[in-house]
Amino acid sequence: MALQFLLQQLDTAGTYARILFVDFSSAFNTIIPALLQDQLSQLHVPDSTCRWITDFLPDRKQHMRLGKHVSDPRTISTGSPQGCVLSPLLFSLYTNSCTSSHQSVKLLKFADNTTLIGLISGGDESAYRWEMDHLVTWCWENHLELNALKTVEMVVDFRKNATPPTPITLFDSPVTAVTSFRFLGTIIALDLKREQNICSLIKKAQQRMFFLRQLKKFNLPRTMMVNFYTFITESILTESITIWYATAKDKGRLQRVIRSAEKVIGCNLPSLHNLHASRTLRRAGKIVADPSHPGP
Description:
Order of helices and strands: HEHHEEEEHEEHEEEEEEHHHHH
Number of helices: 10
Protein name: Reverse transcriptase domain-containing protein
Structural class: alpha+beta
Mean pLDDT: 89
GO molecular function, one term: 2-oxoglutarate-dependent dioxygenase activity
Number of strands: 13
Distance between the termini: 12 Å
Pfam families: ALKBH8_N, RVT_1
Radius of gyration: 23 Å
InterPro entries: AlkB_hom8_N (IPR015095), DNA/RNA_pol_sf (IPR043502), RT_dom (IPR000477)
C-alpha cells in the first residue's frame, strides 16, 4: 500500500512525497489497560472478552535474573508482555482510533510499525505537518512515547530543480533524513529502485545455502532437502515478491541462487518466474475476496 500510494502520487508532475517512519519507545510496555478497554468497547468487542483481557494485563509479577542472582518480584500493571501472542493485536486495537483526516496524508500501521506518508502537491506541506503534530498529541494523550532519535524521514522527489526540503522536528530534535529504510523487511530506497533490496535478499539466501550444503554432506533424503530449501531459502528469495518483482538483471541474479540450490539438491526447483506468478495470483485472489481491501 505504501508503494502504491507513492507511485500513484509521483505519476503526477510537480509532486513529491515525504515519508515519516515513526519509532515508539517500548511500544507494547506502554499500553494502559483502562484505555485499551475503552477502545475494545468502541469496537464492540464482547464484554466478557474485554474483562478477560483487562484482567490479564494488570498486576503481573516479574523479576530479573542475572546468572545465579534473582531480583525481588515487581508488580506490573501497564503494557502487554513481550513475546505474548496477543501483544501485536492488542497494540493495533489500542491505536485503532489514531487515523489521518486528510486525503493527502496516509497513516499506515502494522502492529508497532507506524508510517506517515505525505503526498505533496504544489509544495503545500501543511496537511502533512498538521497530521504529524496530531500524531504527537495523540501519542501523548494515550501514554505512548515517540523515540525522536530513531524516527527518520525520507523525501522522495523526482522534480527537476527541486529545492531542498524544509527539515521537520520532533520534540525540538531534528528528524534524521535517510536515503533508504528497511520497511517491514523490505528496503525502500530514495529512488524507489530495488537494487538494495535485491542485494540484501541474495546475501541472506546465500548464507542459508551453507546449511543446505551441510545437509548434503550428511546424505539427507532429497525430499527433506527440498523442504528445507523451500522454507529456509526460497522464502527469502520470494520475500515481498508481489510488490518488488525485479529487472531482468536482478531476476538473473536471484535465479542463479535457485540454480545453485538445484545442483546441491540434484533436482529441478520452481523458477523465479513461476514463483512470482503463483504468489501474485494468490495475492490477487485474497484482495478480490476481501471487501475491505483498498485495492479493488
